[in-house]
From TrEMBL, chain C:
<dbReference type="InterPro" id="IPR002379">
    <property type="entry name" value="ATPase_proteolipid_c-like_dom"/>
</dbReference>
<feature type="transmembrane region" description="Helical">
    <location>
        <begin position="43"/>
        <end position="61"/>
    </location>
</feature>
<dbReference type="GO" id="GO:0045259">
    <property type="term" value="C:proton-transporting ATP synthase complex"/>
</dbReference>
<keyword id="KW-1133">Transmembrane helix</keyword>
<dbReference type="InterPro" id="IPR038662">
    <property type="entry name" value="ATP_synth_F0_csu_sf"/>
</dbReference>
<dbReference type="GO" id="GO:0015986">
    <property type="term" value="P:proton motive force-driven ATP synthesis"/>
</dbReference>
<keyword id="KW-0406">Ion transport</keyword>
<keyword id="KW-0446">Lipid-binding</keyword>
<dbReference type="GO" id="GO:0033177">
    <property type="term" value="C:proton-transporting two-sector ATPase complex, proton-transporting domain"/>
</dbReference>
<comment type="function">
    <text>F(1)F(0) ATP synthase produces ATP from ADP in the presence of a proton or sodium gradient. F-type ATPases consist of two structural domains, F(1) containing the extramembraneous catalytic core and F(0) containing the membrane proton channel, linked together by a central stalk and a peripheral stalk. During catalysis, ATP synthesis in the catalytic domain of F(1) is coupled via a rotary mechanism of the central stalk subunits to proton translocation.</text>
</comment>
<keyword id="KW-0812">Transmembrane</keyword>
<keyword id="KW-0813">Transport</keyword>
<feature type="domain" description="V-ATPase proteolipid subunit C-like">
    <location>
        <begin position="5"/>
        <end position="60"/>
    </location>
</feature>
<protein>
    <recommendedName>
        <fullName>ATP synthase F(0) sector subunit c</fullName>
    </recommendedName>
</protein>
<dbReference type="Pfam" id="PF00137">
    <property type="entry name" value="ATP-synt_C"/>
</dbReference>
<dbReference type="GO" id="GO:0016787">
    <property type="term" value="F:hydrolase activity"/>
</dbReference>
<comment type="similarity">
    <text>Belongs to the ATPase C chain family.</text>
</comment>
């Protein structure tokens, strides 16, 4: 301790204090302040860039999910449209079929009606012709048979017996 | 080409380290008492080491023991003795003659300036301490030169780093080495100990002190023979700076914890008060003693190992003793490089720890 | 003479203390290698405090 106190130089202490004080002030002004400020700026810049990248990534994710959603919607829409179209087609076919059926039925019915009426007309004509024929025949027979009166009568009677009118 | 340059650089560093030992060894021949009688006894080596550990008024690189001539340059001496007395230290002739300035006579005795009569008589007391009057010595001594050198070096290096940021966010060249150190002090020393909000105010002091001590510690390992941080006046000054900064930044809680410790019974508070007050003083005291003792011890060990070269010459011959001394000195020098950083780190670390204690917010009671 | 005995005692005490600090720090690092940095810093600080104490005693006793 004695030795130390003896070695202690007040002058050196004083010089050191002044030098250190000046050095601290100078270094603060010319070195530490700009250095620390730049470091902080840089770190903040890096942090900002990282944040921005994170943000962009998130946005990207959002965009991607949006896309996915839109795509899904589009797919669903397409499916719906396809389904609708198919249904429409089916409906149309069914409609057409039933229309055709109805038309066909109608035509058949008409044909049948026509056939029936033709048949009636034909039968009526046949009846008329038969009646005419029978009148003609009867005339001929009557002419022949009129010569022979007995025979005439007999013939008329047998003929009439034969012909049955329906 | 680049590889060649790099290996050249390494070679230069190694060479510098080697010449460090060699120059120190050759300056082991220095002596300032009599001519033609090189240092070769234990006592003389001890005295030489003691001389080295002290501050010096001139810058001696080498002394030729045969002729007694010193190779170096004198430094200005500035004394306050009822007025400023300034002259070059060459007037002392390394303590061999009396220097006269303004009608007073001064003599250099064991590295200190004493006021004497014209004949230069120094009277000693029982403890071999001179009883002569000591003028206040504001000389530009070797330590002051070292400090100025460190200061200028720091200003040049770090203002270059600061200017580098104007050109771009990433520094180039040597500044790239300095930047991580600044970040290291900020992130590993200041921020964890002082706190994220308050550390900014103290960065100027902490950074300056860290690099100042580190550069001076390393300067002490060069063959120039500086011993700045191993000088008690320097470490006292550094520790006093910390002391005042801690006391002036102490908040209400800090003082309350010293004078009226909360959360303990009253008798305990009274007992704790003087202990805490003592603690205020022992903290900077341990700071200054640690730095002083570590660096002094380092220099002492290195120089003693160099001294082995002379002492072992009789047993191992000149080559053997030089080899032993060289290997041991190299080994210790490498450890001292680590210590140089460690002591700067610890001084800054503990300073910021003390500052952190003073500014801490206690919200738990 | 007494000074030297005192210095020896201080060195013994300091050595034991430093050994304890270093050993426990090593154990801690071995147990939790990821906390090595923090343990090292704490170890250096406590070592420095102890060193300051020992040096203080040595110099006061000198």
């Amino acid at each position: 301790m004695d030795q130390l106190l003896n070695d202690f130089s007040p002058g050196l202490f004083f010089m050191q204090a002044i030098i250190l004080l000046i050095l601290i002030l100078l270094m603060r002004k010319f070195a530490w302040k700009p250095i620390l400020n730049s470091l902080q700026d840089r770190e903040e810049g890096i942090q900002g860039a990282l944040d921005a990248a994170e943000e962009a990534k998130k946005e990207m994710q959002n965009l991607k999910s949006d896309n996915e959603r839109i795509l899904n919607e589009a797919r669903a829409e397409r499916d719906g449209m396809l389904k609708e179209a198919r249904q429409l087609k089916d409906n149309m076919i069914a409609d057409a079929k039933s229309e055709a059926q109805a038309e066909a039925d109608k035509i058949v019915a008409q044909a049948q009606a026509t056939i029936a009426s033709e048949k009636k007309a034909a039968i009526a004509e046949l009846k008329n012709q038969v009646a005419g024929l029978s009148v003609e025949i009867a005339e001929k027979v009557v002419r022949n048979e009129l010569a022979n009166k007995d025979k005439q009568l007999e013939l008329v009677e047998s003929m009439l017996g034969e012909v049955t009118l329906n | 080409m680049k590889v060649f340059q790099r290996s050249l650089k390494y070679a230069t560093i190694v060479l510098l380290m080697l010449t460090g030992s060699v120059v120190c060894a050759s300056s082991g021949d220095e002596q300032h008492k009599s001519v033609g009688n090189p240092i070769d006894t234990k006592e003389e080596i001890n005295a030489y080491i003691k001389h080295h550990l002290q501050d010096s008024h001139d810058f001696t690189f080498y002394t030729n023991g045969e002729t007694g001539t010193h190779y170096g340059f004198p430094l200005p001496v500035i004394l306050w003795d009822g007025g400023i007395k300034a002259f070059m230290s060459s007037k002392f002739h390394h303590g061999e003659t009396v220097a006269e300035s303004g009608g007073s006579y001064y003599k250099l005795y064991h590295g200190k300036v004493y006021k004497t009569d014209a004949a230069g008589t120094i009277t000693l007391d029982d403890h071999h301490h001179p009883t002569n009057e000591k003028p206040l010595d504001f000389s530009i001594t070797k330590s002051v030169v070292g400090m100025l050198f460190a200061g200028v070096l720091m200003l040049l290096l770090f203002s270059a780093l600061a200017r580098g940021y104007k050109k771009g966010p990433i520094p180039s060249g040597f500044a790239r080495v300095l930047e991580p150190l600044v970040i290291y002090v900020r992130d590993e020393i200041a921020k964890p100990n002082i706190g994220e909000q308050k550390y900014r105010k103290y960065m100027g002091f902490l950074l300056t002190v860290f690099f100042f001590i580190w550069i001076l510690n390393l300067l002490g390992l060069t063959p120039l023979g500086f011993n700045v941080t191993g000088n008690i006046a320097v470490t006292v000054c550094l520790a006093l700076f910390t002391f005042f900064i801690v006391q002036f930044s102490g908040n209400k809680d800090y003082w309350k914890h010293i004078f009226w410790m909360p959360g303990v019974p009253i008798p305990m508070k009274i007992i704790l008060m003087p202990i805490e007050v003592l603690g205020i003083l022992t903290k900077p005291f341990s700071l200054l003693i640690r730095l002083f003792a570590n660096i002094t011890a380092g220099h002492f060990v290195v120089m003693s190992l160099i001294g082995l070269m002379i002492l072992l010459k009789a047993q191992f011959g000149p080559v053997g003793s030089t080899g032993i001394s060289l290997i041991l000195t190299l080994f210790i020098s490498v450890i001292e490089i680590l210590v140089a950083f460690l002591q700067a780190f610890i001084f800054t670390m503990l300073s910021s720890l003390f500052i952190g204690m003073a500014v801490a917010e206690h919200d738990h009671h | 003479m007494y000074n030297l005995i005192g210095a020896g005692l201080i060195v013994i005490g300091g050595g034991i203390g430093l050994g304890q600090i270093g050993g426990k720090a090593m154990e801690g690092i071995a147990r939790q290698p990821e906390a090595a940095g923090k343990i090292q810093t704490a170890m250096i600080i406590i070592g420095a405090l102890l060193e300051g104490l020992a040096f203080g005693a040595l110099i006061l006793g000198k």
